[in-house]
What does this fold into?
Amino acid sequence: MVDIVRLESFGGAEQLLLGSTHVGEPAEGQVRLKQYAVGVNPLDISQRRGEVKIPLPSGLGLEGAGVVEAIGAGVTNVNVGDRVAYATGPIGSYAAVRHFPAERLVKLPEDISFEEAAAVLFKGITAQYLIKTTYPVTQGTNILLYGAAGGVGQLMAAWAKHLGANVIGVVSKQASVERARAAGCDHVFVFDSATLAANVQAATDGKKADVVYDPIGKQTFDTSLDCLKVRGLMVSYGISSGVPDPVAIGTLNAKGSLYLTRPSLVAHTATAEAYQERAADVLDAVAKGIIKAHVAKTYPLKDAGKAQQDIEQGHSKGSIVLIP
It folds into this structure.
Protein backbone atom coordinates (compact mmCIF):
# COMPACT_ATOMS: atom_id res chain seq x y z
CA MET A 1 0.00 0.00 0.00
CA VAL A 2 1.23 3.51 -0.85
CA ASP A 3 0.18 6.99 0.26
CA ILE A 4 -2.10 9.02 -2.01
CA VAL A 5 -4.04 12.26 -1.58
CA ARG A 6 -7.70 12.11 -2.57
CA LEU A 7 -10.32 14.78 -3.19
CA GLU A 8 -13.84 13.67 -2.25
CA SER A 9 -15.64 17.05 -2.38
CA PHE A 10 -14.88 20.49 -3.80
CA GLY A 11 -13.97 23.15 -1.28
CA GLY A 12 -11.16 24.25 1.00
CA ALA A 13 -7.78 22.67 1.66
CA GLU A 14 -9.36 20.46 4.32
CA GLN A 15 -10.94 18.46 1.48
CA LEU A 16 -7.54 16.95 0.63
CA LEU A 17 -7.46 13.61 2.43
CA LEU A 18 -4.44 11.33 2.81
CA GLY A 19 -5.24 7.71 2.12
CA SER A 20 -3.56 4.61 0.77
CA THR A 21 -3.95 2.42 -2.27
CA HIS A 22 -2.42 -0.61 -3.95
CA VAL A 23 -0.49 0.06 -7.16
CA GLY A 24 -0.10 -3.10 -9.22
CA GLU A 25 1.71 -3.78 -12.47
CA PRO A 26 1.51 -1.17 -15.22
CA ALA A 27 -0.79 -1.69 -18.20
CA GLU A 28 0.30 -1.57 -21.82
CA GLY A 29 2.01 1.73 -22.60
CA GLN A 30 2.36 2.63 -18.92
CA VAL A 31 5.09 2.66 -16.29
CA ARG A 32 4.94 2.32 -12.55
CA LEU A 33 6.68 5.38 -11.19
CA LYS A 34 8.11 5.80 -7.71
CA GLN A 35 7.85 9.51 -7.06
CA TYR A 36 10.41 11.54 -5.14
CA ALA A 37 8.94 15.00 -5.74
CA VAL A 38 5.53 16.38 -6.73
CA GLY A 39 4.86 19.89 -7.99
CA VAL A 40 2.04 22.00 -6.58
CA ASN A 41 0.42 24.37 -9.06
CA PRO A 42 -2.40 26.95 -9.05
CA LEU A 43 -4.43 24.72 -11.38
CA ASP A 44 -4.52 22.09 -8.61
CA ILE A 45 -6.15 24.67 -6.35
CA SER A 46 -8.71 25.69 -8.97
CA GLN A 47 -9.62 22.02 -9.40
CA ARG A 48 -9.90 21.51 -5.63
CA ARG A 49 -12.20 24.51 -5.29
CA GLY A 50 -14.39 23.29 -8.16
CA GLU A 51 -13.63 26.30 -10.36
CA VAL A 52 -12.14 23.89 -12.88
CA LYS A 53 -14.39 20.85 -12.80
CA ILE A 54 -13.01 17.31 -12.47
CA PRO A 55 -14.96 14.10 -11.78
CA LEU A 56 -15.07 13.19 -8.07
CA PRO A 57 -13.75 11.38 -6.17
CA SER A 58 -10.34 12.00 -7.68
CA GLY A 59 -6.64 12.23 -7.13
CA LEU A 60 -5.02 15.61 -7.66
CA GLY A 61 -1.90 17.02 -9.27
CA LEU A 62 -0.35 17.05 -12.74
CA GLU A 63 3.40 17.19 -12.11
CA GLY A 64 5.94 14.86 -10.59
CA ALA A 65 9.42 13.36 -10.81
CA GLY A 66 10.86 10.01 -9.83
CA VAL A 67 12.27 6.68 -10.98
CA VAL A 68 10.68 4.10 -13.27
CA GLU A 69 10.01 0.96 -11.20
CA ALA A 70 8.33 -1.20 -13.86
CA ILE A 71 7.27 -0.91 -17.50
CA GLY A 72 4.23 -2.27 -19.28
CA ALA A 73 4.01 -3.99 -22.64
CA GLY A 74 5.06 -1.90 -25.63
CA VAL A 75 7.07 0.67 -23.68
CA THR A 76 10.34 1.43 -25.47
CA ASN A 77 11.19 5.06 -24.68
CA VAL A 78 12.15 4.50 -21.01
CA ASN A 79 13.68 1.70 -18.97
CA VAL A 80 13.47 0.55 -15.37
CA GLY A 81 15.70 2.79 -13.28
CA ASP A 82 15.41 5.86 -15.51
CA ARG A 83 15.08 9.25 -13.81
CA VAL A 84 12.03 10.95 -15.31
CA ALA A 85 9.52 13.73 -14.81
CA TYR A 86 6.18 14.81 -16.28
CA ALA A 87 4.00 17.90 -16.36
CA THR A 88 0.61 16.89 -17.77
CA GLY A 89 -2.25 14.55 -16.98
CA PRO A 90 -3.60 12.11 -16.25
CA ILE A 91 -4.38 13.71 -12.92
CA GLY A 92 -3.09 12.09 -9.72
CA SER A 93 0.48 13.17 -9.01
CA TYR A 94 -0.16 13.63 -5.27
CA ALA A 95 0.97 10.07 -4.60
CA ALA A 96 4.05 8.12 -3.57
CA VAL A 97 3.75 5.64 -6.46
CA ARG A 98 1.54 5.80 -9.54
CA HIS A 99 0.99 4.51 -13.06
CA PHE A 100 1.71 6.96 -15.87
CA PRO A 101 1.71 6.91 -19.72
CA ALA A 102 5.28 6.30 -20.85
CA GLU A 103 5.04 8.64 -23.85
CA ARG A 104 4.43 11.59 -21.54
CA LEU A 105 7.58 11.04 -19.49
CA VAL A 106 10.62 13.28 -19.91
CA LYS A 107 14.07 11.91 -19.14
CA LEU A 108 15.96 14.06 -16.64
CA PRO A 109 19.56 15.19 -17.01
CA GLU A 110 21.71 14.07 -14.08
CA ASP A 111 22.33 17.67 -12.99
CA ILE A 112 18.63 18.36 -12.33
CA SER A 113 17.29 17.01 -9.05
CA PHE A 114 13.82 15.53 -8.63
CA GLU A 115 12.80 18.56 -6.57
CA GLU A 116 14.03 20.98 -9.25
CA ALA A 117 12.26 19.03 -11.99
CA ALA A 118 8.98 19.09 -10.05
CA ALA A 119 9.43 22.82 -9.50
CA VAL A 120 10.16 23.81 -13.08
CA LEU A 121 8.62 21.51 -15.70
CA PHE A 122 4.90 22.35 -15.49
CA LYS A 123 5.54 26.03 -14.84
CA GLY A 124 8.32 26.09 -17.44
CA ILE A 125 6.15 24.59 -20.18
CA THR A 126 3.45 27.12 -19.28
CA ALA A 127 5.97 29.95 -19.58
CA GLN A 128 7.33 28.50 -22.82
CA TYR A 129 4.05 28.35 -24.72
CA LEU A 130 2.91 31.73 -23.41
CA ILE A 131 5.99 33.66 -24.56
CA LYS A 132 6.85 31.62 -27.65
CA THR A 133 3.47 30.57 -29.07
CA THR A 134 0.56 32.50 -27.57
CA TYR A 135 2.48 35.72 -28.24
CA PRO A 136 5.97 35.32 -29.74
CA VAL A 137 8.01 37.68 -27.56
CA THR A 138 10.98 39.28 -29.33
CA GLN A 139 13.39 42.17 -28.97
CA GLY A 140 11.52 45.28 -27.84
CA THR A 141 8.20 43.61 -26.98
CA ASN A 142 6.45 45.37 -24.10
CA ILE A 143 4.93 42.72 -21.83
CA LEU A 144 2.84 43.15 -18.69
CA LEU A 145 3.18 40.18 -16.38
CA TYR A 146 1.10 39.58 -13.26
CA GLY A 147 2.42 37.38 -10.46
CA ALA A 148 5.96 38.37 -11.42
CA ALA A 149 7.36 37.16 -8.09
CA GLY A 150 5.61 33.77 -8.22
CA GLY A 151 6.67 30.43 -9.64
CA VAL A 152 5.51 30.93 -13.24
CA GLY A 153 6.07 34.68 -13.16
CA GLN A 154 9.75 34.44 -12.27
CA LEU A 155 10.35 32.00 -15.13
CA MET A 156 8.46 34.17 -17.62
CA ALA A 157 10.26 37.34 -16.53
CA ALA A 158 13.70 35.77 -16.92
CA TRP A 159 12.91 34.09 -20.25
CA ALA A 160 11.20 37.15 -21.75
CA LYS A 161 14.10 39.35 -20.67
CA HIS A 162 16.50 36.93 -22.38
CA LEU A 163 14.43 37.32 -25.55
CA GLY A 164 14.84 41.10 -25.38
CA ALA A 165 11.48 42.19 -23.95
CA ASN A 166 10.73 45.19 -21.79
CA VAL A 167 9.27 43.30 -18.83
CA ILE A 168 6.74 45.08 -16.62
CA GLY A 169 5.91 43.03 -13.56
CA VAL A 170 2.87 43.31 -11.30
CA VAL A 171 2.89 41.99 -7.73
CA SER A 172 0.33 42.00 -4.95
CA LYS A 173 2.48 43.53 -2.21
CA GLN A 174 5.55 45.68 -1.70
CA ALA A 175 7.49 42.78 -0.15
CA SER A 176 7.50 41.02 -3.52
CA VAL A 177 8.93 43.89 -5.58
CA GLU A 178 12.62 43.05 -5.21
CA ARG A 179 12.04 39.38 -5.97
CA ALA A 180 10.32 40.35 -9.21
CA ARG A 181 13.17 42.69 -10.12
CA ALA A 182 15.71 39.95 -9.40
CA ALA A 183 13.80 37.65 -11.76
CA GLY A 184 14.32 40.06 -14.67
CA CYS A 185 11.58 42.70 -14.55
CA ASP A 186 12.56 46.16 -15.81
CA HIS A 187 9.67 47.77 -13.93
CA VAL A 188 7.60 46.42 -11.04
CA PHE A 189 4.31 47.82 -9.75
CA VAL A 190 2.16 46.80 -6.80
CA PHE A 191 -1.31 46.22 -8.21
CA ASP A 192 -3.63 49.21 -7.98
CA SER A 193 -6.50 49.29 -10.44
CA ALA A 194 -6.58 53.09 -10.30
CA THR A 195 -2.97 53.65 -11.36
CA LEU A 196 -1.68 50.56 -13.20
CA ALA A 197 -2.66 51.63 -16.73
CA ALA A 198 -0.95 55.00 -16.32
CA ASN A 199 2.14 53.30 -14.87
CA VAL A 200 2.33 50.95 -17.84
CA GLN A 201 1.93 53.81 -20.28
CA ALA A 202 4.81 55.67 -18.62
CA ALA A 203 7.00 52.57 -18.58
CA THR A 204 6.52 52.07 -22.33
CA ASP A 205 7.02 55.69 -23.44
CA GLY A 206 3.30 56.00 -24.09
CA LYS A 207 2.94 52.83 -26.16
CA LYS A 208 1.29 50.59 -23.52
CA ALA A 209 1.70 46.81 -23.52
CA ASP A 210 1.82 44.62 -26.60
CA VAL A 211 0.60 41.71 -24.50
CA VAL A 212 -0.75 41.25 -20.98
CA TYR A 213 -0.29 37.89 -19.23
CA ASP A 214 -2.98 37.69 -16.54
CA PRO A 215 -3.36 34.58 -14.34
CA ILE A 216 -5.37 36.44 -11.67
CA GLY A 217 -8.76 36.69 -13.36
CA LYS A 218 -11.73 38.54 -11.92
CA GLN A 219 -9.82 41.06 -9.79
CA THR A 220 -7.53 42.29 -12.56
CA PHE A 221 -9.22 41.57 -15.89
CA ASP A 222 -10.75 44.98 -16.62
CA THR A 223 -7.59 46.81 -15.57
CA SER A 224 -5.55 44.54 -17.83
CA LEU A 225 -7.57 45.59 -20.87
CA ASP A 226 -6.80 49.22 -20.10
CA CYS A 227 -3.06 48.47 -20.14
CA LEU A 228 -3.02 47.25 -23.75
CA LYS A 229 -2.03 49.17 -26.85
CA VAL A 230 -4.29 49.32 -29.90
CA ARG A 231 -4.64 45.73 -31.24
CA GLY A 232 -2.86 44.40 -28.17
CA LEU A 233 -3.37 40.85 -26.90
CA MET A 234 -5.01 40.01 -23.58
CA VAL A 235 -3.88 36.56 -22.38
CA SER A 236 -6.11 35.33 -19.55
CA TYR A 237 -4.51 32.08 -18.43
CA GLY A 238 -5.61 31.70 -14.81
CA ILE A 239 -8.39 32.46 -12.36
CA SER A 240 -6.75 32.70 -8.94
CA SER A 241 -9.16 35.51 -7.91
CA GLY A 242 -12.17 33.92 -9.62
CA VAL A 243 -13.63 33.72 -13.11
CA PRO A 244 -13.80 37.10 -14.89
CA ASP A 245 -17.19 38.49 -15.84
CA PRO A 246 -18.28 37.89 -19.46
CA VAL A 247 -16.82 40.38 -21.94
CA ALA A 248 -19.12 42.31 -24.28
CA ILE A 249 -17.64 41.98 -27.75
CA GLY A 250 -18.02 45.72 -28.25
CA THR A 251 -15.67 46.35 -25.31
CA LEU A 252 -12.75 44.91 -27.25
CA ASN A 253 -13.53 47.26 -30.13
CA ALA A 254 -13.96 50.30 -27.90
CA LYS A 255 -10.63 49.75 -26.17
CA GLY A 256 -8.66 49.54 -29.43
CA SER A 257 -9.62 46.43 -31.42
CA LEU A 258 -8.08 44.21 -28.77
CA TYR A 259 -7.47 40.49 -29.07
CA LEU A 260 -8.44 38.12 -26.25
CA THR A 261 -7.37 34.52 -25.70
CA ARG A 262 -7.72 31.90 -22.97
CA PRO A 263 -4.90 29.39 -23.62
CA SER A 264 -4.26 26.14 -21.78
CA LEU A 265 -1.35 23.78 -21.31
CA VAL A 266 -3.52 20.88 -22.51
CA ALA A 267 -4.09 22.48 -25.93
CA HIS A 268 -0.40 23.28 -26.30
CA THR A 269 0.77 19.76 -25.39
CA ALA A 270 -2.00 17.80 -27.09
CA THR A 271 0.41 15.53 -28.94
CA ALA A 272 3.34 13.68 -27.44
CA GLU A 273 5.61 15.35 -29.99
CA ALA A 274 4.56 18.88 -29.07
CA TYR A 275 4.82 18.06 -25.37
CA GLN A 276 8.32 16.62 -25.69
CA GLU A 277 9.49 19.60 -27.78
CA ARG A 278 8.28 22.10 -25.20
CA ALA A 279 9.72 20.09 -22.31
CA ALA A 280 13.08 19.86 -24.09
CA ASP A 281 13.08 23.64 -24.61
CA VAL A 282 12.47 24.14 -20.88
CA LEU A 283 15.27 21.80 -19.83
CA ASP A 284 17.58 23.45 -22.37
CA ALA A 285 16.76 26.87 -20.92
CA VAL A 286 17.57 25.56 -17.44
CA ALA A 287 20.86 24.07 -18.66
CA LYS A 288 21.85 27.38 -20.25
CA GLY A 289 20.95 29.38 -17.14
CA ILE A 290 18.18 31.31 -18.89
CA ILE A 291 15.69 30.19 -16.25
CA LYS A 292 16.23 28.60 -12.86
CA ALA A 293 14.36 25.87 -11.03
CA HIS A 294 13.68 27.57 -7.71
CA VAL A 295 12.26 25.39 -4.92
CA ALA A 296 10.90 27.86 -2.39
CA LYS A 297 9.65 25.26 0.10
CA THR A 298 8.98 21.54 0.44
CA TYR A 299 6.23 19.74 2.38
CA PRO A 300 5.58 16.08 3.11
CA LEU A 301 2.76 14.61 1.04
CA LYS A 302 0.45 14.54 4.06
CA ASP A 303 0.63 18.35 4.24
CA ALA A 304 -0.63 18.93 0.69
CA GLY A 305 -3.44 21.10 2.05
CA LYS A 306 -1.02 23.36 3.90
CA ALA A 307 1.13 23.65 0.78
CA GLN A 308 -1.88 24.78 -1.25
CA GLN A 309 -2.89 27.26 1.44
CA ASP A 310 0.56 28.86 1.27
CA ILE A 311 0.03 29.51 -2.43
CA GLU A 312 -3.51 30.80 -1.91
CA GLN A 313 -2.38 33.19 0.83
CA GLY A 314 0.61 34.47 -1.14
CA HIS A 315 3.21 33.02 1.24
CA SER A 316 5.20 31.17 -1.40
CA LYS A 317 8.27 32.86 -2.88
CA GLY A 318 8.59 30.46 -5.79
CA SER A 319 7.67 26.83 -6.42
CA ILE A 320 6.33 24.54 -3.71
CA VAL A 321 7.08 20.83 -3.87
CA LEU A 322 5.63 17.85 -2.03
CA ILE A 323 7.91 15.01 -0.93
CA PRO A 324 6.10 11.63 -0.85
Observations:
- The chain has two domains: 2-112+293-323, 122-265.
- The domain at 2-112+293-323 is CATH 3.90.180.10 (Quinone Oxidoreductase; Chain A, domain 1).
